[in-house]
Design goal:
Structural class of chain B: alpha+beta
Strand order of the largest sheet of chain B: 1-4-5-8
Order of helices and strands of chain A: HHHH
Helix content of chain A: 55-70%
Oligomer: heterodimer
Strand content of chain B: 15-25%
Largest interface: A-B, 20 and 26 residues
Distance between the termini of chain B: 28 Å
Shape of chain B: globular
Structural class of chain A: mainly alpha
Strand content of chain A: under 5%
Largest sheet of chain B: 4 strands, mixed
Helix content of chain B: 40-55%
Number of helices of chain A: 4
Number of strands of chain A: 0
Mean pLDDT of chain B: 95
Distance between the termini of chain A: 20 Å
Radius of gyration of chain B: 21 Å
Shape of chain A: globular
Order of helices and strands of chain B: HHHHHHEEEEEEEEHEEHHHH
Radius of gyration of chain A: 12 Å
Low-confidence stretches of chain A: none
Chain lengths: 83, 381
């Protein structure tokens, strides 16, 4: 499964489950909508580290990397390249 | 998992106990009654090497790992009866020094860490506001970039050591729309224009570590005093709070051990109805419960230290430890008072102070309710 679909599925089933959304626009601002909150980000980081074998440093947890699905995909791809 | 301690680690714990018993226990009843912080004791702790213990040698530290640091705090909690002093030291180490060490620029580290490790300066952190406690990241204090400065506006409350701190790590939002990822950390010095501290807020326990409100009115903080990146504040806070939870709790563990020994001794000496009270099951059971809680707490806490050393993160485990230890400490303090009966209720016996101090444990560094929320999230609930 591509990173985008994999992340979207995780967000819809684990983080934004109460919102009843069927899909997420890749550029939808997940922070402004409150879809990702401070507890949700912990689960998300754990998921990324376990799914892709990458290390998400606390310094990287910024809007630049986690604002929307596209930015997350870009971040994961960069981390995979740096492995 | 390996919790085998080296001779050196155990010796340091012993020396921490000896130091605390000899140097830190004078006039605790009076300082608690008058809500007085002792800068002299603060400096003694720094000279002994506590504030710098787990920080690099270049900043005057000892470069110790987390397990050694927890043992040190355990020793301090056992030997020192002034829980406020220990709490304030931990607050500085984990909420001021550690974020600067882990997220600060070299210039920030050079400027602040040596002064904090040496006891010359006192540091405090502040995230809580009048309208945001457990929901910490809904804070309202704003930071606006204006040329070479960030301009901070807002207020903070329950800031431990605010009345005497020289430097503060303060959290403000640079973009409210981004929610918790708008939160950004700043290093604010007492002398920065627009910064002020209100009068002390009176409280139930930990009275030797006063706290107060902070007022930020067009407070100008140089850009170079931003800690980490914009929007990185929540991650910084979450990172260091695991250290804080682990190490403050270690001092409670020491307190539990001190209290248990005292209760065992008292139960073997105090006679009622012709025999020592420890021979009655209702008393013995309380002492046994104290022992079981202490041993369980020890394993939970050492596991957190081991996980942090091995993997760097232990969010859920730190939450479990915080929840269990802080609630166990209250129960043990209540048991200790009850075992000592009327004497336990007196100020002179110093058990009622432990009880008053213990209540804060289920509130600071994330309430018990928040710890349960974290654990529930990790269980997929």
């Amino acid at each position: 499964m591509r990173i985008l679909e994999n992340l979207e599925k995780f967000l819809l089933t684990e983080i934004a489950v109460d919102l009843g959304k069927k899909s997420l626009d890749p550029n939808e601002d997940l922070l402004e909508q409150g879809i990702i909150d401070s507890l949700g980000i912990m689960k998300l980081v754990l998921f990324l580290e376990e799914s892709y074998g990458i290390q998400v440093d606390d310094q990287d947890i910024t809007p630049e990397n986690f604002q929307c699905l596209s930015s997350m995909v870009k971040y994961v791809e960069q981390q995979l390249q740096n492995k | 998992m390996d919790f085998e301690f080296t001779e050196e680690q155990l010796e340091f714990k012993k020396s921490a106990i000896r130091f605390a018993q000899k140097a830190l226990n004078d006039k605790v009843i009076e300082r608690d009654r008058d809500a007085v912080f002792s800068r002299e004791l603060w400096k003694k702790c720094a000279e002994f090497g506590i504030q710098g213990f787990s920080f690099p040698e270049r900043y005057g530290g000892n470069n110790a790992d987390i397990l050694s640091t927890m043992l040190l705090m355990e020793g301090l909690g056992y030997g020192c009866k002034d829980s406020g002093l220990i709490f304030a030291i931990n607050g500085q180490m984990w909420s001021v020094q550690m974020p600067i060490l882990r997220f600060g620029s070299d210039a920030q580290k050079d400027k602040y860490l040596h002064k904090l490790c040496s006891g010359e300066w006192i540091g405090a952190d502040s995230i809580t506001e009048p309208d945001s406690g457990s929901d910490a990241y809904s804070l309202r204090t704003t930071a606006r970039l204006d040329g070479k400065y960030y301009v901070l506006n807002g207020s903070k409350t329950f800031c431990t050591m605010a009345p005497m701190a020289d430097v503060f790590v303060i959290f403000a939002t640079v973009d409210k729309r981004k929610g918790f990822m708008g939160v950004t950390a700043f290093i604010v010095e007492r002398g920065h224009a627009g910064f002020s501290v209100s009068k002390d807020i009176d409280k139930m326990g930990l009275r030797t570590a006063p706290f107060a409100e902070l007022i930020l009115e067009e407070c100008k903080v140089p850009v170079e005093n931003r800690l980490g990146k914009e929007g990185n504040g929540a991650a910084i806070f979450d990172d260091v709070i695991e250290w804080e939870r682990s190490c403050i709790l270690a001092s409670l563990l020491g307190g539990m051990e001190r209290q248990l020994e005292r209760c065992v001794k008292y139960s073997k000496e105090r006679k009622q109805f012709g025999k020592t009270i420890g021979k009655y099951q209702s008393i013995a059971n309380k002492v046994v419960d104290m022992k079981v809680r202490m041993e369980t707490a020890k394993l939970i806490l050492y596991k957190v230290a081991w996980m942090k050393k091995a993997h760097g993160k232990a969010t859920m485990e730190a939450a479990i430890a915080k929840l269990y230890l802080s609630e166990s400490w209250i129960k043990s303090c209540l048991d200790a008072v009850q075992i000592h009966g009327g004497y336990g209720y007196t100020t002179e016996y110093e058990l009622e102070r432990d009880l008053r101090d213990s209540v804060a444990g289920t509130i600071y560094s994330g309430t018990s309710e928040i710890q349960r929320n974290i654990i529930a999230r990790y269980l997929g609930l």
